[in-house]
Amino acid sequence: MTIPAAAAIALAFGLGAVVVVGGTGPLRPWLVAALAAGAATFPLTVSLAASIQALLASVFGWGPDAIAMTLGAGIAGAVVTAVVNEVFKLAAALLVWTFARSRTTVVFGAAAGAGFAVVGAYQVIHLALLALALPISSASSFILSLLQQMAFVAASSASTALAAYGAVRNRAGLYLGAVIVLQSFLLVFGLLFELRVYSNTAWTILDIAAAGALVVGALILDRRPPADAALAPAA
Question: Nearest Cα to 189, choosing from 201, 214, 206, 208?
């Protein structure tokens, strides 16, 4: 039962992010396609980021656990992961947006980013549900895991929405660079927890605060007068 439960929770987080960040109601076919495209990029980014990190470790002579257990190598690994993730998510969003012939990109970015994060959130939630059955587990740790994954999905959705917003306004580098920096910080938050710099509760609070900032930014920009109508494919 843990697999369907984890999938349902992760998907609920994803759909909620699309509704809040994208400002949309029931998912239309093209938004479902964007959600699926984002999900499809997840295993690709994991493989590519791991390959680049392994290359960096070889070049700099890092040990096998350096990226996960040391600050300097861990920050480098976080930046690599953030770059790969954001580029692939943005590409998925823009690909579906182009075929959809829509005048807005934010909702497609929100959907692709949410789809990407749903896959990762499902994996973590599944493990958290399995751990919940162990005697050493606690309800509080499970709730913190859920909150962290909710923040992860919201941040991924909002960051791709922001990157897509910039991409059609000839500011792709600026917006993509900004969300890469913010996502790098989110990954470093997790690294600092692994290094026992602070507690799981503090990590959760930081995650929620950062995700909230990204969501607010996406919502503010989405309410500005559309400037990409001329760039959108003809209806």
Answer: 206
Angle formed by the axes of helices 106-132 and 139-167, nearest 10°: 160
- Side-chain half-sphere CA neighbours of 16 within 13 A: 14
- Would you give the DSSP letter of residue 70? -
Question: What helix, strand, coil percent values describe the chain, rounded to 5?
Answer: 80, 0, 20
Residue 52 and residue 46: Cα distance in Å, rounded?
A: 10
SS3 206: helix
Confirm if 173 and 117 have CB atoms less than 8 A apart. Answer: no
Q: How far is residue 228 from each of residues 23, 217, 222, measured CA to CA in Å?
A: 17, 18, 12
**Which tokens hold the place of 14?**
């994803």
CB 21 within 8 A of CB 158: yes
pTM of the model: 0.91
What is d(CA 14, CA 157) in angstroms, rounded to the nearest whole number? Answer: 8
pLDDT one-digit tens code per residue, 129-175: 999 888 877 889 999 999 999 999 999 999 999 999 999 888 889 99
The kind and range of the H/E element at 105 are none
